[in-house]
Write a structure and sequence with these properties.
- The chain is α/β, with parallel strands linked by helices and 234 residues long.
- It folds into 2 domains: 3-31 and 98-233, HAD superfamily/HAD-like (Rossmann fold), CATH 3.40.50; 33-87, no CATH class.
- The protein has 11 helices and 7 strands.
- It has helices at residues 33-43, 47-59, 65-71, 77-87, 105-114, 127-135, 146-149, 156-165, 180-189, 200-206, 225-229; strands at residues 3-4, 20-23, 118-123, 142-145, 173-177, 193-197, 217-219.
- Strands 1-7-6-5-2-3-4 form a 7-stranded mixed sheet, with helices on both faces.
- Helix 2 (47-59) runs parallel beside helix 10.
- The two termini are 20 Å apart.
Length: 234
């Protein structure tokens, strides 16, 4: 699909050229439908109920962790993760694999490389996520997780670490994510080009927020990213 254009599609500062693109993980590269459905089954609530509550906390700007407390007051995430690992040691549980990859990711990464851009994956993820992403053989130039960096979004140090990892200034890096609060605003504050992808519960809801105007670009899918980052648009 083509990129959404108009007043939200602002011009970059004169002389700025994007040299690398960094991608968030959940609902940017990874479709989390199966993950949240497994959580619903684990919690013993209908999938539609849990997904609806998840959408509700997204609409309110609350953490996804609040969804657990809403459907199961007193819920302890760490304790439940340990129990789940004991009960189903060989299952995916709260994790993802190649079957969860959005279908436009590989083509998008190839298009970025054709533009001469480096590709980085960087998101708030547990340690096992890096191995899962490496197993997909996406051809990324680097994979950074919050667990590995010791800092999580939206902290400024996270975005500084992304730029440092590719040896560039923040203004040379575009950050692509599905959230205004965790991705767009902190990336812009760090000096990066901020791209909001309008998919997943947060992506669709946050695109309606007034703060979405902070995004340099809003795209309907990663298939539209090459259009807004191509040299002709710089």
């Amino acid at each position: 699909m083509a990129a959404v254009s108009g007043p939200l599609d602002r011009q970059r500062p004169e002389g700025t050229a994007v040299a690398a693109v960094s991608f968030d993980v959940g609902e940017t590269l990874i479709d989390e439908t199966r993950l949240w459905s497994r959580w619903a089954d684990r919690l013993g609530v209908p999938r539609l109920t849990f997904l609806g509550v998840l959408g509700g906390v997204a609409a309110l700007g609350r953490s996804h962790r609040d969804a657990f407390e809403i459907v199961q007051p007193g819920f302890d995430l760490d304790v439940e993760l340990a129990r789940w690992a004991h009960d189903d040691p060989g299952g995916l549980r709260e994790n993802f694999d190649g079957d969860d990859l959005y279908p436009d990711v590989r083509e998008c990464f190839a298009a970025m490389r054709e533009l001469g851009l480096r590709v980085i994956i960087a998101g708030n993820q547990p340690p096992q996520a890096k191995g899962a992403l490496e197993a997909m053989d996406l051809g990324a130039d680097g994979i950074l997780t919050s667990d590995e960096l010791g800092v999580s979004k939206p902290a400024p140090r996270f975005f500084a670490a992304v730029a440092e990892a590719v040896g560039l200034t923040p203004s040379e890096v575009a950050y692509v994510g599905d959230r205004v609060d965790n991705d767009v605003i902190p990336a812009r504050d760090a000096g990066m080009i901020a791209v909001l992808v309008r998919r997943g519960p947060w992506g669709h809801l946050h695109a309606e927020w007034p703060q979405a105007a902070e995004a340099d670009h809003i795209v309907e899918s990663l298939a539209g990213l090459a259009d807004v980052l191509s040299p002709s648009r710089r």
